[in-house]
Amino acid sequence: MIAIKNKDSIRKMERAGQLLQEVFCLLSGILKPGITTFEIDCLIESELKKRDLKSKMKGYMGYAHVSCISVNEVVVHGIPSKHIILKSGDLVKVDVCASWSGYCADMARAYFIGTPDKKALQLVEVAKKALDKGIAQAKPGNRIGHISAAIQKEVEKHGFGVVRDFAGHGIGRQMHEDPEILNVGKAGAGPVIQVGMAFAIEPMITLGDYRVFVEKDNWTVKTRDNSLAAHVEDTIVVTLDGPKVITRA
Ligand code: MF3
Ligand code: CO
């Protein structure tokens, strides 16, 4: 069942998104060579607290942190660690889901440490473009498959891989709600999109093969061919006028 949110729920989600976006704004200033992903997670945790944002990740299926921080060939669900020290050239994806007054926003951004490699830069640009194309399809009357197909088309046009094993999702009181929003699919397939629905849309793309595996820690998702991966995510609500992104300024 896909929940339809009322005005009050949407207002709370928008507030969650606004505050979460503020936290991300601080990240570009601290993502420097030498910092550990554990330190980044600690900073995010204190910034969430300052804003009355409650982490939806800490405690989720035993997860112990407020963010997932995924470096280079790690696609998603990288666990913050004192042993992961960022260095020049790294591509870092930070993913945070938090609630305000019981309603969630979910967001991920990709950052470069130092000067990015040309291919890496292109990969991130395509991930962002795919996210925008997917979001643009989240309008009343379309189907979920319109979002999936738009993302897939944009990514494959550039010859990059689209990860199949993980997906975007509905969002509201819970971090993960119906429907599942795959990053591949056919326009016209899946449930009809209606005003009041809210989605977290999150393309996960690779420079090489799209296949991934989960590390022995049961969380870290890596590309099988060790190729570079990008991931970006926004939360949107569906309005009469179309999608409204709540995780951007
Ligand atoms: N926020 C993520 C998502 O988009 C990842 C959740 S995994 C967690 O679904 F355990 F860390 F919460
Ligand atoms: Co998500």
Q: What spatial order of strands do you see in the largest sheet?
A: 8-7-9-14-15
User: Judging from the principal axes of the Cα atoms, what is the shape?
Assistant: globular
Mean pLDDT: 98
Structural class: alpha+beta
Strand proportion: 25-35%
CATH class: Alpha Beta
State the share of residues found in helices, binned by percent. Answer: 25-40%
Distinct helical segment count: 4
Bound molecules: 2-amino-4-trifluoromethylsulfanyl-butyric acid, cobalt (II) ion
What do these coordinates show?
With 249 residues, the protein is an alpha+beta fold. It has a single domain, classed as Alpha-Beta Complex (Creatine Amidinohydrolase), CATH 3.90.230.10. It is built from four helices and 15 strands. Strand 7 and strand 8 form a beta hairpin. The model has no long low-confidence stretch (mean pLDDT 98). The chain binds 2-amino-4-trifluoromethylsulfanyl-butyric acid (MF3) and cobalt (II) ion (CO). 2-amino-4-trifluoromethylsulfanyl-butyric acid is lined by residues 57, 60-61, 63, 68, 77, 95, 97, 106, 200, 202, 233. Cobalt (II) ion is lined by residues 106, 169, 200, 202, 233.
